[in-house]
Structures are given as structure tokens and as C-alpha cells.
Write a structure and sequence with these properties.
alpha/beta, Rossmann fold, Helicase, Ruva Protein, domain 3, 4 domains, five-stranded parallel beta sheet, 22 helices, 53% helix, Sigma_54_int_dom_ATP-bd_2, Fis family sigma54-specific transcriptional regulator with PAS/PAC sensor, ATP-binding, sequence-specific DNA binding, ATP binding
Length: 518
């Protein structure tokens, strides 16, 4: 500790007797203290301390009008958890214990013994400087404490109490550092997750269209977004359930917190629980590090459970508990974690049918079905197709570096006449492919839709054998492409790209027509 720091300490003398003030002022000046002020009005002490934050207040306990005990009460009230640097001055032996109980750190007896006054002032200022170093320089504190402990102990045994207080402060700081580390780990997990989300390609751009069917969706989103109600998005694959979920989150009071997406179809069944709720290190074979789950990452924000109908039945009860009670445990940990999460779920399945088949919990369904929104398939809003085409052409022009400027009437008619089983997602894939292959500045769609259209037409007719034959044809074609790609669905050489389908659409088709890897 630098001696100049002690000599530059701010000291306030409070005594109604001018002679006492003068004596203490002279004593401190001769001892080398440079920042000494005084007052004979005890009512000014709280305001003066608030403005100057004194390192030491020499306070006479016996003053008319307002005694030293009342002054200490005022200081304590102004800063109930702060350090009150009072050195009490009294001629009454009974006042000493009372002064310490009221918050004084030490006392001086009248009449003054100059050596005692100097020693006690010096000791108390040393304690004050150490306290300030504790607040501002925790790393330096341990070395300073080790260097000063023996000196302080021999100088005044009363400093034992102060040392205990420093140890408590150190323990509190360690707890603070642990909390900071926990928050840092969580922020890192959020950043990793959000970077992965940014790297992923959205289902399609923002919801584009002006149809009556979309107007209903916009109205429903506007109604439910500001609320914390659970939303269930229903509709076929590719209709834009993910985009609507993002629109709800962006318009909610939680927009400044993360939107965490969980696609229940892409997570292996063995990892769904740890992905949702997290796991501790060693929770199971191969878990060599702690992982924060999606519900914990989404705390204060929104979690989007896409394809909720695919969630394993054994996990549905845990999801129900989170919805009802807002709590869960990480795998391998007995500690219950509280979370405040808004849930948006989506499915292309008929959950009532799944309930009848014993694959979905009825109580979970009613918890999710608070505010259902059914997204229309593209074939029910074909008037939006020209707007969507223009939007995707502009998007892929920018992405690929092409300059497609026109779309012919024949091309638009062809696209409007198709029944779009893959909905907007399928349209996006076809437009991207067309932008890549088009020559010149006019969009040229080379895809042929007749076979699928024929399937749809025959399905409404009276020739089940022919429908069956086309279904078998589709089955064989998809299986053949999968075999060519080594059953790889996603990626540059995946079957989804060769078939012109989104990977999730291809998986849904495989489930529907019973294709299983052998």
C-alpha cells in the first residue's frame, strides 16, 4: 500500500466544539494528512459524505440537537449495504459498545491521547484503503493482504473482523465470477446456435402474396403475436410454417431474445432429449462435455418445434411438463432448471389421427392447440404465384449472378396450372433451377409436370389400378435415385437435389410410400 494514498485520504471532522475541531485538524495536518475538512453542524454530515465519499469520519457522539448516533443512523439509511467509515469520539465508556453496534468501526476516548489518536486513525485508514482495493483490484488484493496481514494483526487485533469481511467479499466475488462464466458459456452456446441458423437456408423468403387466404393468415399472426399464447401451425410440407413462426416471433415482445428452431425430423431419436433439455458431461457414452439444451437457450425468447408430430412418445410427457410448469432437468443432472419460453409448434400431420393411433398424447395436443393457424397450400392461392415467381427470380439473380428480367405468359400459365404438391418450397426449387439453366434474360422452365399432374387427375377418377401403377412408378423412381446416391438424401450429390425436392419433402414422400433403406 502506498503511504501517499493514506495521507491523501479524505477525512471529515465532526464536533460541535471548535477547540476539539482545531486540535484534531492540527494533529492531522502535522501527521501529513492533506485532505481534511470539518463541520460543527452534524445535520450536514450525510449530505457531505454523499458528495465526497469520505474515507474517515471523526464523529463526536455528544452534540446538541443531533448526536453522533443519529448521524450514523442517517449514514446507514443512505447506504444500508455500504461501508460507513466512522471513528467515534466519546468520553462515556458506555457509548463505546453502543457506537460499534450502531456502525462505527472504532472509537477514540476523551480526553485525547495523541499517540492513540494517530494510531487509531492510521489503522482505520489502512483498513479503509484495503477495503477500497478489494472493490477495485481483486487480483491485487490477495498479494496485498498477504503482505499486510502480519503488520495489521500486530498493529491492532480489532482488524480481525475486517479480515473476515474481506474473506466474505472474496467468496462473493468467486460466486460472481462463476455466474459470469455460466452466462458466458450460455452466450457462446447461443452464438454457435445462431451462427448455424444463419448458415442454414430458410424454407423460402418472406411470405409473399396478396390472396384472401394469406390475408387470413396475416390477420391471425397480428392477433396472436403480441401475446405469449402457444401457437400450433398446421399445413402441408412447404407451405411456410417456419416463415410464419419467425413472423410471429419478430412481432412479439420477445423479438430481442432468440428464436430457437428444433426440427424434430432431423434429430436422431436417441439425441432428441439431450438436444431439447441439454446434458451434463458423462450423462451417457460419448457425452464428453456439458451441453446446454434448446429450451435453456430459448429462455426469454421463443422455441419453434417444427414437425412436432415426429416427436417420440416418451419425450412428449417431458415437453408437456415444460409447457405446464416451465421447468426441466438436463440429462445426468438432478437440478431443476426454470425457463420462460414461448412455444410455437408446427406439423403436417393430422394430430387427432395420431392420437387415435396412440402416437401422440391427447393432453399435449390440447396444450399446443391454443391458437391454431392453418396455412393454405399453394394450389389454393394460385393468384400469388406470379408474385412468388418474381420474388424468387430476383433472389436467385442476386445469388447466382444472372440477369433474368422477364417471365413469359406461357411460363406463368404452366406454373399456375400445376398443382404443387411440394407447395412454395417446390416452386422455389424449380425457379432456382430455371434461373441456373435459362439462357438470355427470359426465364425458361424446363421441368415437365405432366406425370405428376396425371397422377392427381387419375386420383379423382375411377381407375385405381392406373393410380396404383403411377404410385409404384414414383416409388421405383425415388428408390432408384436413392440407390444411385448411396441413400444420401441431402447435400450436393444427394437424392433430394437430383429429384428437385427439399430434403424434408423427400423424407415425407418416403414415409408416405413406404421406402425404407435396406
Amino acid at each position: 500500500m502506498i503511504a501517499s494514498e493514506i495521507l491523501n485520504a479524505k477525512i471529515l471532522i465532526v464536533d460541535d466544539q471548535e477547540a476539539n475541531v482545531a486540535l484534531l485538524d492540527q494533529l492531522l495536518g502535522e501527521a501529513g494528512y492533506t485532505a481534511v475538512t470539518s463541520t460543527q453542524n452534524p445535520a450536514e454530515v450525510c449530505a457531505l459524505h454523499g458528495d465526497n465519499n469520505y474515507d474517515l469520519i471523526l464523529l463526536d457522539l455528544q452534540m446538541p440537537g443531533m448526536d453522533g448516533f443519529q448521524v450514523m443512523e442517517g449514514l446507514q439509511a443512505d447506504n444500508p449495504k455500504g461501508y460507513i467509515p466512522v471513528l467515534a469520539i466519546t468520553a462515556q465508556p458506555g457509548h463505546k459498545v453502543r457506537a460499534l453496534e450502531a456502525g462505527a468501526k472504532d472509537f477514540i476516548s476523551k480526553p485525547f491521547k495523541l499517540v492513540e489518536v494517530k494510531t487509531r486513525i492510521r489503522n482505520m485508514l489502512e483498513v479503509r484503503m484495503l477495503y477500497k482495493e478489494l472493490q477495485n483490484h481483486n487480483k491485487l488484493l490477495e498479494q496485498t493482504v498477504q503482505e499486510r496481514t502480519m503488520d495489521l494483526t500486530s498493529a491492532n487485533t480489532q482488524l480481525t473482523q475486517e479480515i473476515e469481511e474481506r474473506k466474505k467479499a472474496e467468496k462473493s466475488l468467486h460466486k460472481t465470477y462463476a455466474e459470469i462464466k455460466r452466462l458466458k458459456d450460455r452466450l457462446q452456446e447461443e452464438n454457435v446456435y445462431l451462427r448455424n441458423e444463419v448458415d442454414q437456408k430458410f424454407n423460402f423468403g418472406e411470405i409473399i402474396g396478396q390472396s384472401d387466404a394469406l390475408s387470413v393468415i396475416f390477420s391471425q399472426v397480428q392477433q396472436v403475436a403480441p401475446m405469449n399464447a402457444t401457437v400450433l401451425l398446421l399445413g402441408e410440407t412447404g407451405t411456410g410454417k417456419g416463415v410464419v413462426a419467425r413472423a410471429i416471433h419478430r412481432s412479439s415482445t420477445r423479438k430481442d431474445r432468440p428464436l430457437i428452431t428444433v426440427n424434430c425430423t432431423t434429430l436422431p431419436a436417441t439425441l432428441v432429449e439431450s438436444e431439447l433439455f441439454g446434458r451434463e458431461k458423462g450423462a451417457f457414452t460419448g457425452s464428453d462435455a456439458r451441453q446446454i439444451g434448446r429450451f435453456e437457450l430459448a429462455d426469454g425468447g421463443t422455441i419453434f418445434l417444427d414437425e412436432i408430430g415426429e416427436m417420440p412418445l416418451e419425450l412428449q410427457s417431458k415437453l408437456l411438463r415444460v409447457i405446464q410448469d416451465g421447468e426441466f432437468e438436463r440429462l445426468g443432472s438432478p437440478r431443476t432448471i426454470k425457463t420462460d419460453v414461448r412455444i410455437i409448434a408446427a406439423t403436417n400431420r393430422n394430430l387427432k389421427e395420431e392420437i387415435r393411433n396412440g402416437k401422440f398424447r391427447e393432453d399435449l395436443y390440447y396444450r399446443l392447440n391454443v391458437f391454431p393457424i392453418t396455412l393454405p397450400p399453394l394450389r389454393q392461392r394460385k393468384e400469388d404465384i406470379p408474385l412468388l415467381v418474381n420474388h424468387f427470380v430476383a433472389e436467385f439473380n442476386n445469388k447466382i449472378g444472372k440477369k433474368i428480367e422477364t417471365v413469359s405468359t406461357n411460363t406463368l400459365s404452366l406454373l399456375r396450372d400445376y398443382h404443387w404438391p411440394g407447395n412454395v418450397r417446390e416452386l422455389e426449387s424449380i425457379i432456382e433451377r430455371a434461373v441456373i439453366t435459362s439462357q438470355g434474360n427470359s426465364l425458361q422452365v424446363l421441368d415437365r409436370f405432366e406425370a405428376i399432374q396425371m397422377t392427381d387427375e387419375i386420383a379423382g377418377g375411377n381407375d385405381p389400378q392406373e393410380v396404383k401403377a403411377l404410385a409404384e412408378l414414383e416409388h421405383d423412381h425415388i428408390r432408384q435415385v436413392l440407390q444411385q446416391t448411396g441413400w444420401r438424401i441431402e447435400g450436393k450429390n444427394g437424392a433430394a437435389l437430383l429429384l428437385g425436392l427439399n430434403p424434408s419433402t423427400l423424407r415425407a414422400r418416403m414415409r408416405k410410400i413406404g421406402i425404407v433403406r435396406q
